């Protein structure tokens, strides 16, 4: 560009945890993945979210967001799902990894 539009990079820093950089652009780690180190350069980030946890965009630790009581999530989930429970029962376990292990108890 000309003198009015020329943009020159004068410094550079690594992407922080929860992000990755490609071609000089910073992106949040995708849903279901986490980035626990600085300087990641792939959308795979550090890996899949841990089972029993959710990883929305930009998550920095695989176990940063545990599912609440009555919820579950398998490895790589970006949100927790409600445990199925028959009428008149409640779920009593948190951080479960599948709907089969949520567990229920009566009122």
Structural class: mainly beta
**Strand numbers in spatial order across the main sheet:** 1-2
Radius of gyration equals 20 Å
Percent strand equals 15-25%
Order of helices and strands: EEEEEEEEEE
Q: Name the overall outline.
A: elongated
Measure the end-to-end span. 71 Å
**Segments where pLDDT lies below 50 for 5+ residues?**
none
Q: What percent of residues adopt helix (DSSP H or I)?
A: under 10%
Q: In DSSP terms, counting alpha (H) and pi (I) runs of 4 or more, how many helices?
A: 0
According to DSSP, the number of beta strands is: 10
| Biggest pleated sheet | 2 strands, antiparallel
Mean pLDDT equals 82
Summarize the structure.
With 107 residues, the protein is mainly β. The protein has a two-stranded antiparallel ribbon. Strands 3-4 form a two-stranded antiparallel ribbon.
Set out the fold topology.
Elements: E1 19-22, E2 25-28, E3 33-34, E4 47-48, E5 53-54, E6 65-66, E7 71-72, E8 81-82, E9 89-91, E10 104-106
Antiparallel strand pairs: 1-2, 3-4, 5-6, 7-8, 9-10
């Amino acid at each position: 560009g000309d003198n009015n539009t020329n943009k020159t990079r004068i410094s550079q820093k690594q992407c922080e945890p929860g992000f990755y950089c490609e071609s000089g652009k910073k992106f949040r780690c995708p849903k279901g993945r986490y980035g626990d180190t600085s300087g990641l350069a792939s959308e795979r980030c550090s890996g899949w979210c841990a089972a029993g946890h959710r990883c929305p965009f930009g998550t920095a630790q695989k176990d940063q967001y545990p599912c609440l009581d009555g919820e579950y999530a398998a490895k790589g989930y970006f949100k927790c799902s409600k445990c199925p429970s028959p009428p008149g029962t409640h779920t009593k376990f948190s951080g479960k990894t599948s709907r089969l292990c949520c567990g229920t108890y009566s009122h």
